Amino acid sequence: MIIINKIASLINHLRTALLISLLALISFSVISGQKSKDDQFPYDQSSDKETPPVKDRLFFGGSLGLMFGTITDIQVSPVIGFWVLPRIAVAAGPIYRYYKDPLDKTSIYGGRGYMEFVVIQDLSAIFHGSGHTGLFLHAEDELLSLKASFWKYPYNPPGRFYLNTVLAGAGISQQIGKRSSLNFMLLWPLDDPYEIYSKPELRISFLF
User: What are the Cα distances from residue 170, in Å, to 16, 76, 140, 190?
Assistant: First the structure.
C-alpha cells in the first residue's frame, strides 16, 4: 500500500507540474517576447552602469503546490531575497506542507535558505531568440519539523523531530516583467532517509 501511494503521489506531482509549466510557458512567452533589453532585471545590467540601490536588489516571491485526490499535498513557501552580486542571489523563508494519504495525515513545517548563481543571464543573446530566459544553479538547505508517529520509524523520538536536508540542481528563469520572473527548477536531495522528496524534485516559483 505504501509503495502504491508513493507511485500515485509521484504521478500526480508530475502531471500537475507539467500542466502548470505548459500553461505558464505559453502564457508568458507572448509577454516576454515584447520586452526590450532596457526592461531586464537589475542583475542583467552591464558592468559599466551604477550598482542598483539596495531596495532594487531585494526580491520577494515563493512557491505554492496543490495536489488533491488519493494523496492530498498542499505546500506554501514564501521567500525574501537579495542580489549580493550581479550573478549571485541569496534568499530565505518559512515552509509549510500539509500531507494526507489514505492512512494518515500530517503537517510539515520549517524553514529554508538558498543561493543561486546565474550561469547565463540571457539565452536569447546566444541563440538570437526573443524574450529574456536565464539559466542558473541552485543550492538549498532545508530544516523541517516532522511528526514522529506519521513516519513510523522505530528510532524516532516521541512528538516531533527535525530533519536537515540539502538540495542542489539547476533551473531556468523566464522574465515576465522588469522585476518579476517565473522559475522552473529540478533539484535533487543529497540525503532523503524519509523519502519526502521526489527525485528529482520539480519546483515552480514566482519572484518579483
Answer: 20, 21, 11, 14
Residue-wise pLDDT tens digits, 126-154: 766 656 789 999 999 999 999 988 887 66
All three cell numbers of 85, joined, read 552580486
The residue whose grid cell reads 538540495 is 167
Environment class of residue 195 by beta-carbon count within 10 Å: exposed (0-12), middle (13-18) or buried (19+)? exposed
Question: Which structural domain, as residue segments, surrounds residue 201?
Answer: 2-207
Residues across the chain = 208
| Nine-digit cell string for 41 | 532585471
* Euclidean distance between CA atoms 93 and 65, whole angstroms: 16
Domain count, the chain: 1
pLDDT computed for residue 154 by the predictor = 60
Look up the CATH number of the domain holding residue 167. 2.40.160.20
Residues 6+ apart with CB under 8 A from 4: none
Distance (Å, rounded) from C-alpha 191 to C-alpha 193? 6
